[in-house]
Amino acid sequence: MAVRTTSWLSIPSLLRTLVTHVRLSLRLLREPAVPLLIKGLPFVALAYLVSPIDGVPDFIPVLGQLDDLGVVLLALESFLKLCPETVVAHHRAAMASGRPFSPAAASASRGDGQSRGPVAGGSVIDVEFRHEDSPTAGPAKSDAARR
């Protein structure tokens, strides 16, 4: 009986992981529940990718490209870990079922225990403002003009 071992470094699984992480990250960049500071992390990785300054120069045949791929994967993985878990779970489930993008529920957690959205306390407050003219408004009329 043969035992087959696979490595996480195999090319198809690595590329599949990269494509899945990129698709999920694009959805999370559009998500209002993800803090703006965290949304900057994929852009930092993109800047490293196009930057001429590298940890391993790109003219070294294989190591230069693997260095860039590793930095991008590390940045995307960090971005997904820093995003609120409920939001990531919502978008993973939406991708698995083939649903188009829709923001997570308004009561999704931001990670600091507070909820987001207009229905944070569980009740809706409806207020209507009106402006009605009062009888004394307008130019003052003298008693002589009223007679």
Please, could you describe this protein's structure?
- The structure is a single chain.
- The chain has a domain at 11-105.
- It has 6 helices and no strands.
- The termini are far apart.
- It has helices at residues 11-29, 36-39, 41-50, 63-82, 85-97, 143-146.
- Helix 1 crosses helix 4 (63-82) and helix 3 runs antiparallel to helix 4 (63-82).
Number of helices: 6
Please report the total strand number as a whole number: 0
Query: Percent of residues in beta strands?
Result: under 5%
Overall average pLDDT: 78
* Overall 3D shape: elongated
The SS-based structural class is mainly alpha
| Rg estimate, integer Å | 28 Å
Tell me roughly what share of residues is in helical segments.
40-55%
Low-confidence stretches: 107-120
Largest sheet: none
N-to-C series of helices and strands: HHHHHH
State the end-to-end CA separation: 115 Å
Quick summary:
This protein has 147 residues and is mostly helical. Helices cover 48% and strands 0% of the residues. It has a domain at 11-105.
Provide keyphrases for this structure:
single chain; 147 residues; mainly alpha; elongated
Secondary structure topology:
Layout: H1 11-29, H2 36-39, H3 41-50, H4 63-82, H5 85-97, H6 143-146
